[in-house]
Design goal:
The chain has 273 residues and is mostly helical. It has one domain. The N and C termini lie far apart (57 Å).
Length: 273
């Protein structure tokens, strides 16, 4: 869908995601949860910020993919767990264990290698990592369930998204009515394609172990990296390899630390029982 601007695709995501989510809410008979959410100013404020971060994350990612930056976008999602740890330390005053500090240091070394060897700041990776980690932080503070929270976020952005789509259609610059039938189908499907993974992720996150969830989150950027390298033949030289190796080593240490910490907690609980 390179012929459609990234920002327009995001507006389509918002509009068609909302229709899908409203259908799910109608099936579950949970419209009351959405009404209650809009009655609480704090929740609306949190979801306004989270919706803006989510939209920014989507926009940067879609732009990156359509401009041949799939590998760098994968780097952003590889960095997310380490940015989460850093945000936890800076904003929530969580104490970091030595291996976590080491993991963050390795990630910083990898980014520094990209800066020195390639001469540019990996802004796509930074933007993706910071917006997604910030979104996760705000979701942690929200008391809304998965589908209610996503519906509220989408409702907040819907007036803007619908207004822009109508304006672009009126001026003849929008995709609808301008592209072929195949691309019409793709554009109209982005809502379902967006909503289902977010909902299933939230559903699964409540039912599997944290360490398992952490490891599963590496699958998506790994597949993105492989697609960028093998399918789209994006450049990946020795400088990239050195930088990514530092970041991947950091992720291995981070995962190992999480596994050991959870194992220690379970053993301690078993001993107490």
């Amino acid at each position: 869908m390179q012929s459609v601007a990234a920002i327009e695709l995001i507006m389509h995501r918002i509009v068609w995601s909302l229709l899908f989510l409203l259908g799910v809410l109608a099936w579950q008979k949970k419209f009351g949860d959405v009404r209650q959410a809009f009655a609480q100013k704090r929740l609306i404020g949190l979801n306004l910020l989270s919706s803006l971060l989510l939209a920014a994350n989507w926009t940067v990612y879609v732009w990156a993919v359509n401009h041949g930056q799939v590998i760098e976008s994968s780097l952003g999602y590889f960095l997310v767990p380490l940015v989460n740890v850093a945000l936890g330390s800076l904003l929530l005053h969580e104490r970091l264990r030595p291996l976590q500090w080491t993991a963050i240091g390795l990630a910083a070394a990898g980014v520094g290698t990209l800066l020195v060897r390639l001469g540019h700041v990996p802004w796509i990776a930074f933007a993706i990592a910071v917006t997604w980690a910030g979104y996760g932080l705000l979701k942690k503070k929200s008391s809304l369930g998965a589908i209610t929270g996503l519906t509220v976020e989408t409702l907040i952005l819907f007036p803007l998204a619908a207004g822009l789509l109508l304006w672009w259609h009126h001026t003849g610059t929008g995709a609808l009515g301008r592209v072929d039938a195949w691309h019409h189908g793709l554009v109209l499907s982005v809502g379902v394609v967006t909503a289902i993974p977010l909902l299933t992720f939230a559903y699964g996150a409540q039912r599997i172990r944290l360490t398992t969830l952490g490891l599963l989150q590496y699958l998506s950027p790994t597949v993105q990296f492989l697609l960028g390298y093998f399918l789209y033949h994006e450049p990946f030289d020795a400088a990239h390899l050195q930088a990514y190796a530092c970041i991947w080593c950091g992720l291995i240490l981070y995962s190992a630390d999480g596994f050991w910490a959870q194992r220690h907690t379970l053993l301690k609980a078993a001993g107490a029982a």
